[in-house]
């Protein structure tokens, strides 16, 4: 389902492309290029902050999940809180579209009254929709909290999400991302003590330099459905197998049960679509180059023809 | 001017070429049975020690009763709740067989009549011992027959098992391995007691639950409410239990898209088969849960093999330190593979004048579904004292989706960016204009 909507949306936008692009290119030629480029890079990120951060209360869960499948769902740029205990494994899921940079920050506030007996090491792990661990290229993902610390702050910046990658590469792809927060080292006596956690996700457009080609058949959003065994006899024909697979596609996109209850841990498609939209400042550069080329051609032509005209 | 116009026309042409829309066919979701109501069983320790003073003149029992009342008041409609006691009836001094079977269901798992449930709790008097293992077994029985939904047990106690062996932690692990999806959350009322804490956190770890060291009655109430609400709000379809083949892929179960659960012992391999149609992509993820104490370093590997045992893709992950699960995944589009067997088949038929039967089948396979093999292996290890059976929980997710469109260019739409292409285009235009001008000068 989501795939069709994306496709349709993209087609609708594409029809408006030439005019927009030409108009913008004209702007580039008039010398306003840097301003336009700068604006363009900033606006989408700003909009996301506004819509996903505050408007939707559902995007601000007050609980964390206990595993991948029941992870609490956050917005692209969202916030979640949880009251938990030392030693618990806390999970959140959030969507990231292609061409976006995602960052996760977490603040753990200790709520015991000086009961902790020693230092503990806290860590954020981010897994992608295939449950592959993704590298944190920025931020402190592993931090030691002293026994008397009142809070500890963690952060993890992911690599820019690609729109396409070779199947055997571990590159980050559009889809669900899972945040796991836990104490990876702790004195055994401190298990079960209360903490409160605030986790925040920030997703922004990485800009035209990271605008890539290619598209996945479906985002990396795993199905929430239980599997069914193929016993061989019942679905020996190709057609049935095809139907089964087509059904699974729909399942992956439809995160609700037949009663309309939403499955836990299924992220929603970001506002701009999974592929991050067709727009990038590459259009400006390319069209600008074409127009400059056209002007240079006219100029060159005029200069060479000039003597003839005068003479 | 002509060149200017031509350039504009070319540019428009490029734009027109780019307005080719993607196509996709609608697909229908197949109907599924509706969900069972979430079931929660509260197991409360009513042993003699619960009569000890807790805080502000309250006994532990009072605190537990207060928390229960508040949780029952705020209970979501959808939740089926049961209450079971341990150590509520036995009045003797000596611990014997009877004391170790002292666990009673005071409220059956089902829709809750709030007044009745509260009454049942109010009547409890602390006495007896703490037969946790027995209570856990009974609590699982209480849930009744088969259900595809999760079962959650919340165990509230102030003391460790008094009737061991067996260790309740091992009992919990066995119960969780019996094919039902069981989570035991434990709440310890005596966080300073090392034995209680170790046992309760072990029970939680064994079933993927949580352990809470309860500080005061407010925290007890809040936590209890949170755990009960969690079962109501979090809708997760229980994975289909499956048993992977141990050593032969041909005997492995054939999986469709969805989530499966299995058990795998330390160092064991398990095989599953998946059918992949042309133009489709297989995505598989696996998590192996460390539900018992394990050595510091561990790893998991997921490999995709073809019929001949050739590796097509793999995912692997290693880790160290405290963890709940270790996961990895892989994806594999059908199209990538088609080229290889075809090339082999061609090579084979050109070498021999008459094509061999095996060469034929290879050729025919092009454009048809292939049955691939998933191999899940783990490299967990543990001290000798740790029980190996039942195996550790494995969760396998299989997705079959449309294969990705390979990009014709790594840049979006093949567009240029930066000063080099800008200058290049300008210089090209200039040169073209000058040349055209010269041509016009010579021939006009």
Describe this structure in words.
Chain B: It holds the Pfam family VWA. Chain B: Residues 1-24 form the signal peptide. Chain B: Residues 39-227 form the VWFA domain. Chain B: Residues 346-360 have a biased composition (Low complexity). Chain B: Residues 341-367 are annotated as: Disordered. The complex is a heterodimer of chains A (311) and B (444). Chain A has a single domain (2-224, 264-289), classed as Jelly Rolls, CATH 2.60.120. Chain A is 32% helix and 24% strand. Chain A is built from four helices and eleven strands. Chain A has helices spanning 2-15, 17-55, 238-253, 282-310, and strands at residues 72-73, 79-85, 90-96, 100-110, 120-128, 133-134, 142-145, 151-157, 175-185, 194-205, 229-230. In chain A, a hairpin with a 4-residue loop joins strand 5 (120-128) and strand 6. The longest helix of chain A is centred in the N-terminal third of the chain and has 39 residues, at 17-55. Chain A is elongated and about 95 Å long. Chain A starts with a helix and ends with a helix. Mean pLDDT of chain A is 77; it is low at 1-57 and 234-253. Chain B is an alpha/beta fold. Chain B has two domains: 39-233, von Willebrand factor, type A domain (Rossmann fold, 3-Layer(aba) Sandwich), CATH 3.40.50.410; 240-402, Jelly Rolls, CATH 2.60.120. Helix content of chain B is 32%, strand content 27%. Chain B has helices at residues 2-18, 60-73, 114-122, 132-142, 168-177, 194-207, 217-233, 334-351, 357-365, 419-443, and strands spanning 39-45, 53-55, 58-59, 80-86, 103-110, 151-157, 182-188, 211-213, 240-241, 254-255, 258-264, 269-276, 280-289, 297-305, 311-320, 325-333, 370-378, 392-402. In chain B, the strands form four sheets. In chain B, strands 5-4-1-6-7-8 form a six-stranded mixed beta sheet, sandwiched between helices. Chain B has a five-stranded mixed beta sheet with strand order 9-11-18-13-16. A five-stranded mixed beta sheet of chain B has the order 10-12-17-14-15, with no helix packed on it. The model of chain B is unreliable at 1-34 and 336-365 (pLDDT under 50).
